[in-house]
Amino acid sequence: MTVRVRFAPSPTGMFHVGGARSALQNWIYAKQQGGVFVLRIEDTDAARNKPEWTEGILSALDWIGIERGGYEGPYFQSQNAGEHRAAAQRLHDAGRAYFCDCTREDVQARTGSQYTGYDGFCRDRGLEAGEGRALRFRTPDEGVTVVVDLVRGEPTFENKLIEDFVIARGDGSPVFLLANVVDDMTMGITHVIRAEEHLPNTPKQQLLWDALGVKPPIWAHVPVVVNEKRQKLSKRRDKVALEAYKDEGYLAGAMRNYLMLLGWAPSGDREIVPWSVIEDEFRLDEVNPSPAFFDEKKLRAFNGEYIRALGVDEFVAACQPWLTGTDTIAPPPWQPEEFDAEAFAAVAPLAQTRIAVLSEIVPNVDFLFLAAPLIDEAAWAKAMKEGAADLLAAAVAAFEALATWDAESLKSTLEAVGAERGLKLGKAQAPVRVAVTGRTVGLPLFESLEVLGRERTLSRLRAARVRLP
Ligand code: GLU
């Protein structure tokens, strides 16, 4: 039997990191089993779907390593509507489903104030199909439904607690629960690996598989992804869009490594490992079923490690989108003609060891390309205390006299200027840094001054001196 798994997102919003995690798990499982990964876009909720979300899913998958052409599909659920209706009809014809014209209020009036599920009123009324009549599945009164789940063992559900659920609406359109099963059936899916949120649907879906006479798949419900307050990640509250992380400058490699650690870890106390190790070692039955904490701080730290592991040329290339701007990344504060690739290449290795996400490259290097630095006023106030004017004037005089303009000489010169005033190098650096870069933190100062050059450094120091009383 060839293993066939599927990833079945609904294109109703930005692509969620939890979805990316499930997609990767499916992808690896298929690869390990010599199986097939199917992509199915569940687009039957016409009111909430947008084609651009579908495109977003495809490109996000591509980014994370699930490349177009490497899987079967994408299929679109809406194209299978005929099959969904036919299955509903078959269930009705076999006596496994019946029409029902009860409203929620009707049921509530019969069962008391709380709606606790459908009461089976129409089960034996023999209603024909008709406008406004929903089709309900006749769940067995007895017995249990045992779900074989690679992550959760064998969750067992009592059939008598499962209401006669709706499988097609009053207008005849099949609901998600049925469409999803029929698609899995027609696509020959053998393993359904999906998020825990769907577990409550599973006994109902398994009953549908049984009623339609096909052996149900093996399930694997992977843990819900939560924030630091143990709340399920939500797009209203948390940063969940894979694209947002991409645009902030997370590397795909770091992201997918981190996503695979949600509920699982490779052997030997390691977390940052080559993708091939994850592909080898990942086991669905080792996934911890408890909620998985999406720790953004940890992801940042991961990303910093991945950035540092790049070759300098790769790092320079990876920074390009932030140095120019793209459709989704804001342009930098300098004009394209102000950018100097050579100066950038000179400071790139210094930046590479310091930034955790690639977008941070911009505030670290903007002083090199702008005619005047962007002065952060809070930084200015902090650095330009008493004595700053005198120090800047002395630094200008000493730097002007330098025979060679290099980091070493600049450093020893400023050290001497500071010492004459009883200042340690750190203190002496602060006004110089703010005058030249506009900020209190950034790349190593003297290397920065070397790359910026004599003229521009001196003119910025003089301009700052003039601004001070
Ligand atoms: N379309 C469903 C979702 O995006 C997935 C259902 C499934 O994986 O079975 O939540």
From TrEMBL:
EC number: 6.1.1.17
Compartments (UniProt record): Cytoplasm
Binding site for ATP: K235
Superkingdom of source: Bacteria
Keywords noted in UniProt: Aminoacyl-tRNA synthetase, ATP-binding, Cytoplasm, Ligase, Metal-binding, Nucleotide-binding, Protein biosynthesis, Zinc
Pfam family membership, one: tRNA-synt_1c
Recorded GO CC terms: cytosol
Keyword Lipoprotein: no
Keyword Cell cycle: no
GO BP of this protein: glutamyl-tRNA aminoacylation
CDD domains: GluRS_core
Domain Glutamyl/glutaminyl-tRNA synthetase class Ib catalytic, first and last residues per copy: 3-300
PROSITE patterns: AA_TRNA_LIGASE_I
Span(s) of short sequence motif 'HIGH' region: 9-19
Reaction catalysed by this enzyme: tRNA(Glu) + L-glutamate + ATP = L-glutamyl-tRNA(Glu) + AMP + diphosphate
Cofactor section: Zn(2+)
Alphabetized InterPro entries for the sequence: aa-tRNA-synth_I_cd-bd, aa-tRNA-synth_I_codon-bd_sub2, aa-tRNA-synth_I_CS, aa_tRNA-synth_I_cd-bd_sf, Glu-tRNA-ligase_bac/mito, Glu-tRNA-synth_I_codon-bd_sub1, Glu/Gln-tRNA-synth, Glu/Gln-tRNA-synth_Ib_cat-dom
One Gene Ontology term of the molecular function aspect: zinc ion binding
Family to which the UniProt record says this protein belongs: Belongs to the class-I aminoacyl-tRNA synthetase family. Glutamate--tRNA ligase type 1 subfamily.
Entry function: Catalyzes the attachment of glutamate to tRNA(Glu) in a two-step reaction: glutamate is first activated by ATP to form Glu-AMP and then transferred to the acceptor end of tRNA(Glu).
Subunit structure and binding partners: Monomer.
The name this protein goes by in its record: Glutamate--tRNA ligase
Source organism of the structure: Micromonospora siamensis
Protein encoded by which gene: gltX
